Structures are given as structure tokens and as C-alpha cells.
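Students often ask what a holo structure prediction actually looks like on paper. The answer is less mysterious than it sounds. You provide the chain, you provide the ligand, and the output is a string of C-alpha cells encoding the 3D arrangement of the protein together with MUC.
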Amino acid sequence: MLYAVHMDVQIPHDSDPATIDKLKAEEKARAQDLQREGKWVHLWRVAGRYANISIFDVAGHDELHGVLSTLPLFPFMEISVTPLAKHPSSIK
Ligand SMILES: O=C(O)C[C@H]1C=CC(=O)O1
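The corresponding C-alpha cells follow.
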């Protein structure tokens, strides 16, 4: 199943910079592994914001929740999820 996911990242200003740098490096490695696995099929930066719009291709809601909730930056994210269905006018 395909899902559009919007992630807004809000890191508290008083966070330890070294801890945040480590989490960001771990997040990047995890995001790239998921892309190589074909589960995170699009990852786009929202221009001008520390946010992304992504497309995930996973088995269903439970797998998506498992993936998102174990992202290293998950505690600092506001996430919204939109399940996607086939559009009748799509040629793909
Ligand atoms: O930068 C972000 O949008 C947050 C998160 C998503 C992928 C990644 O590497 O970091």
C-alpha cells in the first residue's frame, strides 16, 4: 500500500547539539536503508521548512507505524499520513 507522509521536525532549542547531530546521522542512515529496501520510495524536502513529504510503499498501516515510530527523529516529529488509492485517470 502507498502512503503520503508529511513529517515536520521540531527540535527543542535547548537540545544538546552533539546528541541531535548523532540522531540526524542515524536518521539519514535509516532513511537511506529504507529507500534501498524500496519502502521509502520518495523523499522530498518542503522548501523553506525543516519538513519533508514522502511516499512509503509498505504492507499496511501496521508496517507504516512500525517504520515511522522507530525513526531516530520520531520523538521530534509531527507526522500526518494519507493513504493513497489508484486515481481512475492515472495512466500508470
Ligand atoms: O530531514 C528530514 O526531513 C527528517 C528526516 C527524514 C529523513 C531524514 O534523513 O531526516
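The chain has two helices and four strands.
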